[in-house]
Amino acid sequence: MEQENQVENMAQPTQEHKPKKQSPILIILNVVLLVGLAVLYVLYFTGEKKAKTSATPSLASYQPIVSNEPGNGEVLFINMDTLQAYYALVDILEKDIDQDKKRLEASFANRQETFQQKVNQFQQNLQANTLTEQQAMNTEKMLTDERDKLEYDFEMADVNIKSRQLTALQQVMDSIVLATQIVNAEYNASYILSYQYGGQLIYADPTRDITKQVLDRLNAYYEGK
């Protein structure tokens, strides 16, 4: 009976580790924008994914001109809600990661179901008293090892997804900052602030809003694709 109870408990951890939804890029981006751009040390996309989601050539090739002349003291604004909603790269990265999350969820669901079937069969064999003591011990160890491997693989997949989300966030933020620098070459403003609904900035002068210019620069690479 004690061995049967151990087997029943064996299947429980994998149910607690069912893949759960991750915060989307836009939610993470909202948080980071409130506290400023942080330095993120994360893994990079590999292979085809990295090539597909790399920074746009027009932005990557741009080298900001460093001038000895100070800005004109002007303050400009960017609406981050608008950028998040209409920046093509955000949608591309989000869909790419979401597809992999769904694929992993399906894979782990299948593996967990298969494992549960093995546990159920083991319980039946114990109840029917069809296993020798040595066979029962060997099977229990095999199931324990398989459970541990399933949990480890899920944890590693979860870490990878989170790393890719941070990489995507860094990529989006870098491109926004660079596009803003390009647009500001025309204005020579001393400060460019971001604002969004619910943030600390209650009002921004619409005539000082350069959101459209920055968004057009960001999406230029994706037009016609």
What does this structure look like?
- With 225 residues, this protein is mainly alpha-helical.
- It has one domain.
- The protein is built from nine helices and two strands.
- It has a two-stranded parallel sheet.
Describe the structure concisely.
65% of the residues lie in helices and 4% in strands. With 225 residues, the protein is mainly α. The protein has one domain.
Outline the fold blueprint.
Blueprint: H1 2-10, H2 12-16, H3 25-35, H4 47-52, H5 57-60, E1 75-79, H6 80-86, H7 88-127, H8 133-187, E2 191-195, H9 211-219
Parallel strand pairs: 1-2
Helix pairs in contact: 1-7, 7-8, 8-9
The count of domains is 1
Counted by DSSP, the helix tally is 9
Helix-strand string:
HHHHHEHHHEH
- How many beta-strand runs? 2
The chain-level structural class is: mainly alpha
Features:
mainly alpha, rod-shaped, 225 residues, 9 helices, two-stranded parallel ribbon, single chain
